[in-house]
Each structure stands twice: as C-alpha cells, then as structure tokens.
Automatic annotation (TrEMBL):
CDD domains: OAT_like. This is Diaminobutyrate--2-oxoglutarate transaminase. It comes from the Bacteria. Pathway: Amine and polyamine biosynthesis; ectoine biosynthesis; L-ectoine from L-aspartate 4-semialdehyde: step 1/3. It is an enzyme of class 2 (transferase). It comes from Streptomyces drozdowiczii. Keywords: Aminotransferase, Pyridoxal phosphate, Transferase. Belongs to the class-III pyridoxal-phosphate-dependent aminotransferase family. Signal peptide: none annotated.
Length: 434
C-alpha cells in the first residue's frame, strides 16, 4: 500500500509538491508527536503541520470538541453568521490577547488559510489609510496569494511567480544582534523620511516577530519596539503576522508580548484552528472603516475549526504551555548549541521557544577565525533531513537556501521526547557529515 500510494500520488499531483517530495511517508495514524506510516514505521513529527499542531496530532481535548459539535446537530457551514460555537471561540481568543489590544479590537473572519488573512490585513490598512504601498522585510513569508507573495522576500523558488505591487518597499531585516537591528531601524527611518527616496507614505508595515519559513530569525525585542515607534509616529498601521508564532510557540502566548508592543493588526491562523483551517485578523477598532460586504468569503468561521481552536487555546492557556515552550525550548537550544561544537556543519543555532532553527553550512569551507560567515550548504542540509527521516524524525528545511533545519514540535512535548529529538538530530548530523 505504502509504495503504491506514493507512486500514484507522485504521478497525479502537481510538481509543486514540497513536503511530499522530501518526506516520502504515508501517514495513516497519528497521536501527539508521533505519526505512523502505512509501512508501520513510526516518526517523531517536528514539522507539526508546518507549525500548526500546538497540541500535537489528535489531542483528546481537540477530538472531544470536534465530536461535540458533530453530535450536537449544529450546522457545519455557517458563512459569517453568529453561532454559539463562534461566540465561544471569540471569547476565548480575546481572553488570550494582550489586554490593551483586546479591549479595543475587532475580529474579521477570513479564511480558510493564513494567506487569506494576510490579504485581508492589507486590504484593511489600505482602506483605512487611503494609501497603497506596504513595507515588508527580506526573509519574510506571508503566504502564496498575490499580495502575501509580493510581501514575502527571499524565497528563491517563488521569485518568478511573485507579482509585486508597484509601490512595495522592502527593508533589510537585522538579525545580526542589536547592532544589526539598529542599522536596520535607521535604514527604515531614512527610507521613510528622506523625500529623495521617493517612498510614498505606506499603508502599513507587516512583520513576523520570528521569521519562520525565512529560516527561524527572531526579531530582537529592541528592534520590534523601534518598528512600533517608527510606525506610530508616522501613523503607519503595524501588522504583526503571528500565523506561525502564535498560541504559545515562542514562549509567550503571542510573540509580540516579548517586546511588549501593541500592533494595530494581528494576523492569526495555523494553531488557532486546532489543526483545522481557520484564519482571522484582529485589529484596532479605529481601523474598522469597512462597509458591510467589503470583505467576504464562503469559508469563514468553519464550526469544527472554531471548536477545535477554542479547545486548543483554552488548553494552552490553562496548562501554561507557552511558559513550558519557553523553558523546554531554551533547554533544547542549549543542547543543540553544545552539539555545534562537535559538528562543523552547524553554522548557527537560533530560535525562541519551540521554534528552533539549525543552520547547515559547508564544513570544509568553514573559515578559521576570519570573521566571515561560512557558506550555506543546501546539499548537506537535504542530507541531514534525509538522515533524520531514516532515524524516524521529521524535520523541515527553511531559509533562503533551504539550509535551516526547522524544529516545530508540539508544545505538549515531554522532556524525554525533547531529548530523543536532539539525540536523533545529533546522529543525523554525524551521519550526513561522513
Ligand atoms: N504567515 C506566516 C508567518 C506563515 O508562516 C504562513 C505559513 N507558513 C503564512 C503566513 C501563510 O499561511 P497559509 O499557508 O495557511 O496560507
């Protein structure tokens, strides 16, 4: 069955498949961190639905919530009508948001994907400001629809399909510590304030508090506060894309809490649907200049996703899983950093909470004390991913050159599982280096 399914799907499905190409597995059952394939093999899943599964696969509270809706006879398709299931979701969601933000916020159901919510955010700030340009950052990833794609930077393989808006501008994203962050902030300020730059006042700025697909690049808290200041003093709405960083992943329920900034718009998806498709924007109510019908869509507010999402948000909140992700992630980062000493192919280990990246570089070309960066090694990174897979560990590659091994385990990860993940990755690094 395993081979037949793989063969048939590779014949019939689009050449654009990504995960299936590097992960030739046929999942038939899953629970928590574990996926079982049709061939009977078991894997530790550190891809977690591209960062979606805050509670891992098929968590009992999520399954229970879904069954409850199914058994209740509630309509499954409700457009944007008011329902008790939606009421519970919005109440739980607003309860988790930073107080200063939630007290004066509106929610717009978009959907069903993160990219839909990004488009809605762009539309909203354009409508509210009457301006059209957007500020986005190199290395950003916001989705695969036209606006989101135009705002995404650094993904070589999507460059040909990117359709930039005429007035889009990109700023360098300072990931080189606080000094790099200061330079990036100055660059942004100069661009906005120098009339010779020709930059028209933008409709908004979109940023990820930790870039995910871009290779796990945490934005320094100081830089986040500078971006808030820069946008606030110029009346530019700030959009925080928390599609991947949200729901506890980075060690705070929402990643903007680390820097304490209050954005104007938050883009939320992935974990908020408890493994089912759901996407919303939450925004400062002054921005709500939309007329009825200004934003629509058939699949908004899927009842099953809202119920699964409510259960997930409540479970993360009640069990302190954000704090847990911070502590456990810190421990994993420390063990991975100590591994780096034994593995010259590890160029960098970075992350926040349970959003971790291990950058693979060419061990041969690693310069000795020259202060220059060793070159990324995509072939070796792909080999590490395959060695992980053969040891029953599913990881994804990210970053501009697909050289960052990304770990996005569920927040329910146990200490023993965390150790197993690091051990398997260590073995895979050793095998790939040989
Ligand atoms: N924003 C961020 C930060 C993301 O990580 C992603 C998905 N990886 C998206 C937006 C797009 O979400 P979707 O794939 O559901 O359209």
């Amino acid at each position: 069955a395993h081979e037949g399914i793989l063969r048939r799907q590779s014949l019939r499905e689009s050449a654009a498949r990504t995960y299936a190409r590097s992960l030739p597995i046929v999942p038939v059952r899953a629970r928590g961190l574990t996926i079982e394939g049709a061939d009977g093999r078991r894997y530790l899943d550190c891809l977690s639905g591209a960062g979606t599964l805050a509670l891992g696969h098929n968590h009992p509270v999520v399954l229970e919530a879904i069954k409850k809706v199914l058994d209740s006879g509630a309509p499954l398709h409700v457009l944007d009508l008011a329902t008790p299931v939606k009421d519970a979701f919005v109440t739980e969601l607003f309860g988790t948001l930073p107080r200063e933000f939630a007290d004066n916020a509106r929610v717009q159901f978009c959907g069903p994907a993160g990219t839909d919510a990004v488009e809605a955010a762009f539309k909203l700030v354009r409508a509210a400001t009457g301006r059209s340009g957007l500020l986005a950052f190199t290395g950003a990833y916001h989705g695969m629809t036209e606006g989101a794609l135009a705002a995404s930077g650094g993904a070589e393989d999507v460059r040909v399909t990117r359709l930039p808006f005429p007035q889009d501008y990109r700023c360098p994203f300072g990931i080189g510590g606080e000094a790099g962050a200061r330079t990036a902030a100055h660059w942004t300020e100069n661009l906005l304030d120098d009339p010779k730059s020709g930059t028209p006042a933008p409709a908004g700025m979109i940023l990820e508090p930790v870039q995910g697909e871009g290779g796990v690049n945490p934005a320094p808290d100081g830089w986040m506060r500078r971006m808030r200041e820069i946008t606030e003093t110029r009346s530019i709405p700030l959009i925080a894309d928390e599609v991947q960083t949200g729901v506890g992943r980075t060690g705070a329920f929402w990643a903007v809490e680390h820097s304490g900034i209050v954005p104007d718009v938050m883009v939320l998806s992935k974990a908020i649907g408890g493994s089912l498709p759901l996407a919303v924007i939450v925004y400062r109510s002054e921005l709500d200049t939309w007329q009825p019908g200004a934003h629509a869509g058939t699949f908004r507010g899927n009842q099953l996703a809202m119920a699964a999402g409510t259960a997930t948000l409540a479970y993360v909140r009640e069990n302190g899983l954000a704090e847990r992700a911070g502590v456990l992630g810190g421990r994993m980062l420390a063990s991975l950093r100590s591994l780096a000493a034994d593995h010259p192919c590890v160029g960098d280990v970075r992350g926040r909470g349970l959003m971790i990246g291990v950058e693979i570089v060419d061990p041969e070309a690693r310069p000795q004390g020259t202060g220059t960066e060793p070159p990324p090694d995509p072939v070796l990174a792909a080999a590490v991913q395959q060695e992980c897979l053969s040891r029953g560990l599913i990881v994804e590659l990210g970053g501009r050159y697909s050289t960052v091994v990304r770990l996005l385990p569920p927040l329910t990860l146990t200490d023993e599982q965390a150790t197993a993940v690091v051990d398997r990755l260590a073995d895979a690094l050793a095998a790939a280096e040989r």
